[in-house]
Hints:
By secondary structure, the protein is mainly beta. It contains four helices and 33 strands. The protein has helices at residues 2-39, 115-118, 150-157, 308-311, and strands spanning 43-46, 51-53, 57-59, 64-67, 75-76, 89-97, 103-111, 123-127, 141-143, 146-148, 162-168, 174-176, 183-190, 195-202, 205-212, 218-220, 228-233, 239-244, 251-256, 266-268, 277-283, 287-292, 301-306, 324-326, 333-340, 345-350, 358-362, 371-372, 380-385, 391-396, 403-408, 415-416, 428-429. A hairpin with a 3-residue loop joins strand 2 and strand 3 (57-59). It is globular.
Amino acid sequence: MRLTRAFSRSRFSSRISCMNAAVRLCHALILLFVFCASAHADIVFVSDEPADVAGGRAYDEQNIYIVNPDGGALRKITDRANEPWEVEKFLNRRPAVSADGRRIAFVGFRTFEDPALAATKGWNGDPWTRALGKPLTEELYFYGYAYYASRWYAKALQNFNWNIYIYDIRTGKTSKASLFHWKEGDVQFIGKGRTLLYSLTAEKSSFILHTASNRRGWKQIIYEDNQVVNPSVSPDGRHMVYQSYKDGNWEIYVLKMAESYKDRLETRLTYTTLRSELHPQWMGNSRIVFAANARAGTKYDYFMLDLAPLLDKMLGFDARKLTEKRLTQTGGADGDLQWSEAAKLLAFVDASQRGGGQIFSMDPFKDEPPKQLTTGRDRNRFPAWSPDGKRIAYISGMDGDPGLFVMKADGSGAKRVSEIRAAWDAPVWF
């Protein structure tokens, strides 16, 4: 009897040990999977390539590519050949990747003729003001016996301005997310990737809109006719900062994101008359960094503003009491700045340096001079931190044609990732 009980206890403890070992193995596999997933990172960048179409004529073409940091697995996600008609201009810029890594949004410009319209009697096929040298967006087209503004012509062409497109990485399909006949840009994802935020410019006015990425619907966030541009949503999606000209010069504002218009509380963050504040970006959920000219003039530096005392109150708080810290003293800020939450460092471009732009990094919480990461006579722009904060992707002209480069966070090991000519546009890691 005792032997039977002892044997049973032994078998039970053996099963427990096996179960514990299996659990530990599962945990190890999960950690390995997470580590591999976090270690894997690709880069989205914009190319600048002429395309020979229509009897050998070269037209502008910019495409979106995905590549890994070592230059492998290059993939082109935009293609002129996929358009329903022959495209004259095929431009794609400003990519943004959703937090879940499943979607890439970008702005695209297409011009192509509708064969049915071109075959219609009375269509002369060319804008009558082309010979006058006016911008394409201001040309009038002759159709029948009347002149129509370019917006009417755009309806016939299906596209005549910048629109937003979304590429699904899993399916490889691209869909058009906006149908406005005005310029759209500043596209970015909110949350995990189901919602887009972007600005729309019409008749010298800008508005902030957001739309669900899986349906053609939109909601206007800013209603005022006041040139609202460069929106930036905090990582937690609760607040948005942007620059506006409604008070007579460029100032920074913060808005509480909410579904109801009455709950979208807005607060002006800067109160200046002889300087302009531009290009606000979040550093975490409570601090922002922006470019501003320290006094009347054209030289800009970077400044940091702590919004923590304001965000929980919004109403009745005097933003002039917020703590502002000047980060640079060279007057070469140009808006190319990005915060790395992993590295706790800020990367930016000083346009006053040799070559018209050199990349620096700095710890904004320490009183130490910025560290220069790039050198030489060539222009370097658009630093983008890898998710782990260990590398920086950027665009450089050091090899003649602009290209996508990657370097370590300390500036060492810089190398060109792709031989494709890159556009001067910000790359994005995911």
